[in-house]
Recover the amino acids of this structure.
C-alpha cells in the first residue's frame, strides 16, 4: 500500500511512501547427493546439494540437512544446520549403524526473512549401510596332515554371497595370526614346512570392497614321522643232533595308533614282500619263501600311518647250514 501526501494546494510539498515490502520463499536445492551409495555401519558420509535459490528480499542464510534411517526424512527427523549464503554446499552426517538399512537425506534452504524458508527438498540422497559378505567356502586337495618334511595343499575357494549384488567380491587369505591379508584368485596352493607336530592356521575371507567377511579357517599339521622297531624270535628244531632256527616270529612296534606294517624277507640280497597287516606280528618259514641250504637272509619291516612311511627296521642276518636237508626236516 503506497500513499501520496501533498504539502499544499499550489503543487509544492513532500511525498512520503510507506507500505509492506514483498517477500518470497527461498527455493530448495534441486539436487541432493551422497558421497557413496554404500557405507560402513555408522560411517560419516558427505552430503552435497546444489540448485538452491534465494527469495525476493530473502537471501540464503543457511541450510538444514534432514536425515532418517529407513524412511523418508521430515522436518521432525534428525538434522544438521549448515551456515552458508551460497546456492550449494556440503556437510557430513552419520549413516545407520544397522546393516542393510538405508539412510535418506533431504535439504531445506533457510532465508534471511523469518518464516520464508523453502519447503524440504523433493530431491533426496541415500546411502545403504553395508551388509557383511558371507564367509567363503572351500575344498582341499589332500588331508590336513602333511609329511614330516612338509608339503603343499591346494584350496579351491568360492567367495561368499552378499545382499549387495552391485559389489564385486574378491578373496583374501591370511596365515596364522590373521593380521596380514593377501588377495588371491582360486585355486590357491600354499606350501608348509616346519617342526614335526607343528600346526599352521590359514583363514579365508570374502571382501566386498568395504569390509571382510568373518573368517573361515583350516589347519595344516606337519606329521610326526612314524618310527618302527622289530624283534624276532625263532622256533627251534633239532636236525642231526644239532639245533637250528626254523620258524621266525616277527614282532613290530610303532609310535602311531593308525598303522599298517609292511614285511619283507631279503634272501641272498633279493627282497621279497611278505604282505602287510595292522597287528605288527607275522610268522615266517624262510623255506616257503625260497630259502635253501646255504642261504643267508634277514627281515625288514616298515610302517605307514596314512601319511608317510617310517624308515626300515632290520633284523639280524640268518644263515641256513649247507648240511641242512629240507626233505627230511
Amino acid at each position: 500500500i503506497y500513499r501520496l501526501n501533498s504539502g499544499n494546494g499550489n503543487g509544492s510539498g513532500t511525498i512520503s511512501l510507506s507500505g509492506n515490502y514483498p517477500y518470497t520463499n527461498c527455493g530448495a536445492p534441486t539436487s541432493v547427493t551422497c558421497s557413496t551409495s554404500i557405507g560402513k555401519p555408522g560411517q560419516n558420509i558427505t552430503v552435497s546439494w546444489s540448485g538452491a535459490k534465494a527469495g525476493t528480499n530473502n537471501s540464503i542464510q543457511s541450510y538444514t540437512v534432514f536425515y532418517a534411517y529407513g524412511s523418508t526424512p521430515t522436518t521432525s527427523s534428525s538434522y544438521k544446520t549448515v551456515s552458508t549464503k551460497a546456492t550449494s554446499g556440503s556437510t557430513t552426517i552419520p549413516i545407520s549403524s544397522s546393516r542393510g538399512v538405508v539412510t535418506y537425506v533431504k535439504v531445506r534452504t533457510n532465508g534471511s526473512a523469518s518464516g520464508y524458508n523453502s519447503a524440504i527438498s523433493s530431491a533426496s540422497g541415500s546411502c545403504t549401510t553395508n551388509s557383511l559378505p558371507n564367509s567363503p567356502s572351500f575344498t582341499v586337495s589332500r588331508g590336513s596332515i602333511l609329511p614330516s618334511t612338509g608339503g603343499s595343499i591346494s584350496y579351491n575357494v568360492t567367495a561368499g554371497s552378499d545382499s549387495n549384488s552391485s559389489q564385486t567380491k574378491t578373496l583374501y587369505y591370511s596365515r596364522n595370526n590373521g593380521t596380514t591379508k593377501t588377495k588371491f584368485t582360486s585355486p590357491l596352493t600354499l606350501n608348509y614346512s616346519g617342526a614335526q607336530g607343528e600346526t599352521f592356521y590359514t583363514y579365508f575371507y570374502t571382501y566386498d570392497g568395504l569390509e571382510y567377511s568373518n573368517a573361515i579357517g583350516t589347519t595344516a599339521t606337519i606329521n610326526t614321522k612314524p618310527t618302527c622297531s622289530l624283534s624276532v624270535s625263532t622256533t627251534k628244531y633239532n636236525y642231526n643232533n644239532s639245533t637250528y632256527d626254523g620258524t621266525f616270529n616277527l614282532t613290530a612296534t610303532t609310535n602311531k595308533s593308525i598303522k599298517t606294517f609292511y614285511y619283507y624277507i631279503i634272501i641272498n640280497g633279493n627282497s621279497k614282500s611278505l604282505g602287510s597287516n595292522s597287528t605288527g606280528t607275522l610268522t615266517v618259514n624262510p623255506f616257503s619263501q625260497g630259502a635253501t641250504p646255504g642261504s643267508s637272509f634277514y627281515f625288514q619291516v616298515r610302517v605307514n600311518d596314512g601319511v608317510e612311511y617310517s624308515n626300515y627296521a632290520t633284523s639280524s642276518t640268518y644263515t641256513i647250514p649247507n648240511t641242512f636237508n629240507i626233505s627230511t626236516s
